[in-house]
Amino acid sequence: MSVFLSERFSSLTPYVPGEQPQDKKYIKLNTNESPFPPAPNAIDAVSRAVERLALYPDPEQKALTEKTAALCGVGFENVLMTNGSDEALDFAFTAFCDTNSPALFADITYGFYKVYAEWKHVPFTEIPLNDDFTLSVDDYIGKKGAVFIANPNAPTGLLLPVSEIERLLRADASRLVVVDEAYIDFGGETVIPLIKEYCNLLVIRTFSKSRSMAGARLGFAVGCKALIDDLKQIKYSSNPFNVNALTAAAGIASLENDSYNAENCRTICENREYTIRELRKTGFFVTDSKTNFVFAKKPNVSGKYIYETLKQNGILVRRFDTPRIDDYVRITVGTKEQMKTLISEIKKITEAQNA
User: Fold this and answer.
1) For residue 79, what is the enclosing H or E element?
2) Residue 61: pLDDT band by 50, 70, 90 thresholds?
3) 24 and 107, same domain (yes or no)
């Protein structure tokens, strides 16, 4: 840390991304990436877009926005494309949160919410999930501030019904509710249709998970025109060319071949259910995940031990050194072959513990 760093950021605790080790080849099940490549036509589109790299990309991303809006069943004016869903969250915290409008989010959820709040000096309250990791909407009703909900939640994988989010929206029309749907394509029901009725709803999505584009960094926000205009004010004041030409080309092509992405999602869901069944057979507790990962723990076996033993054997999973969940591991759902290898190693761990 240099002497030039602003005192405002001296105590900031950064977000810690999942490991990306280069020391050897791992079965990588730690960062919720897709095990499948992007749609073939997306790869071709990127190759063609290279020829235009001397030019700035379209700041409005008109073609990409139109196709995304059509996918969501909303108007062009209801969508803003961003550099990953994280940038959409960044814009939302910047636009809608301050000392007069604090942030509210769960104690166990996506770690970037707390980072953004601290970075932007926004007062925030972490509201504990129930003992079973479910989120109670009643805990948010009557409290002041913008609500941020990951649905399905990460790292627990649990899904909140649309009816519960709508109940939260109705409870206070003057309070913003931001729903982060990064994993919605793996078994959840989106709340995007509700933006036509509720102007206090902002939905954030990503191409990283279900469209195999984590490396491209593409996301978007959906809301009423007024909310999207607010986000555009932040975008054009900070990063007008936020989506690069190669990413935009890949995004457009991916949306044109969305059946490919849907088939991959179905396969991942099948592999997820296989993994959950097999883990439960070996005595693991596993949440009812509706994401592309599973969240599991083995009674009387530390999560740290499972994580470290799997890593030694060439399998990376994610563990959080956080109260309430430090004995859990979060396992990305990969190919069927990868999950069979994982289960085989898990069985060896449990057998060794029982010996």
Assistant:
1) strand 79-82
2) very high
3) no
Q: Sign (positive/negative) of CA torsion 146, 152, 156, 160?
A: positive
Q: Cα torsion at 328, 334, 340, 343 (round to 10°)?
A: 0
Q: Does residue 235 share a domain with residue 121?
A: yes
In degrees and rounded to multiples of 5, residue 131 shows phi and psi of -60, -30
Mean pLDDT value across the chain: 95
Percent of the chain whose pLDDT exceeds 70? 99
CA angle, corner 172, sides to 169 and 173, nearest 5? 75
Residue 52 CA to its chain's centroid (Å)? 30
Q: Are residues 285 and 220 in the same domain?
A: no
Whether 2 is covered by a domain: the verdict is no
- Decide the pairing of beta strands 177-180 and 201-206: parallel
Residue 128 preceded by cis peptide, ω within 30: no
8 Å CB contact between 103 and 143: no
Domain count, the chain: 2
Assess whether 178 and 298 both reside in one domain.
Answer: no
DSSP 7: G
d(CA 305, CA 32): 21
Closest to 326 in 3D by CA, of 307, 343, 304, 350: 304
How many angstroms separate the CA atoms of 126 and 159, rounded?
A: 19
Q: What is the pLDDT of residues 78-134, one digit of tens each?
A: 999 999 999 999 999 999 999 999 999 999 999 999 999 999 999 999 999 999 999
Are residue 87 and residue 140 in the same domain, yes or no? yes
Give me the percent of the chain exceeding a pLDDT of 90: 91
Angle between helices 258-281 and 245-256 (to 10 degrees): 80
DSSP state of 20: -
CA atoms of 64 and 247, how far apart (whole Å): 10
Question: d(Cα 102, Cα 96) in Å, to the nearest integer?
Answer: 9
